[in-house]
Specification:
The protein is an alpha/beta fold and about 240 residues long. It is about 25% helix and about 25% strand.
Length: about 240
């Protein structure tokens, strides 16, 4: 008769094997998409508003942005589609993302967001443009912690967007004010009793320019680079 072999595992080893089989039960952190549809829409005196993203990140920035639950380009494009509304007047506006970068430099995360709005008349003539640019810097987390990096990048996007919402509206009113249709204007788009306008945005449009025509510069965080271009650039002149 062949002898029987009995394998006995130490209690600690049995527990370790059992825990390994269970795996990490901690649920992953989820981040809600940033939503700015509650802000007042900016109705432009055009029939169409086009949106485009011209920002192409370099490999280093692309690797970092891939970890961001809400990359700046995604957030600012969504915001623009919610806020910039055509009121039906002949003409076209184009919203362009020029920069939406986040880079790691000397232990800091540095984000920059720059957008531009161009307006052309119904016959295709360039009528004006404006730019809005904001930046933000914060201490970078330990790069070995993917969760900490995700949280930091999400916070970066929120900071950039908070500043951009203020800066974009200011630059539009300052440089393209004649192309904005306020709600008390005869050219304003129809607004229902619920505040809904074309495109399904439920919010009250801008009620009118500041009294006396003066537009105060917004009190925004440091690092803003105001776009004060209300002249047609040479490349667009006809």
């Amino acid at each position: 008769m062949r002898p029987k072999t009995i394998l006995t595992l130490a209690p600690a080893l049995v527990l370790a094997v059992a825990l390994a089989g269970c795996g990490d039960s901690t649920p992953p952190v989820t981040y809600a998409p940033l939503d700015y549809s509650y802000l007042p829409p900016i109705m432009l005196k055009v029939v169409n508003v086009n949106f485009q993203n011209n920002y192409v990140p370099d490999p280093g920035a692309a690797a970092l942005l891939s970890q961001d639950p809400e990359p700046p380009a995604t957030a600012v494009l969504t915001m623009a589609q919610h806020r910039l509304v055509a009121n039906g007047t002949p003409g076209t506006a184009t919203f362009t993302i020029e920069n939406a970068s986040v880079e790691q430099n000397a232990g800091n995360l540095v984000g920059t967001l720059t957008v531009r709005v161009d307006v052309v008349s119904a016959d295709g003539r360039a009528k004006g443009y404006t730019e809005a640019s904001v930046s933000h810097s914060q201490t970078a987390p330990d790069s070995s912690s993917s969760d900490a990096m995700q949280a930091a990048l999400y916070s970066m996007t929120k900071q950039l967007m908070d500043a951009m919402n203020v800066q974009l509206q200011y630059q539009l009113q300052h440089n393209l004010g004649s192309w904005i249709a306020y709600s008390n204007s005869a050219a304003a788009a129809p607004v229902s009793t619920t505040g809904a306008v074309a495109g399904g945005i439920v919010a009250t449009p801008l009620t009118g320019p500041p009294t006396g025509g003066a537009i105060m510069s917004p009190a925004t965080p440091s690092g803003l680079a105001p776009g004060v271009h209300n002249l047609v650039p040479p490349s667009m002149a006809h």
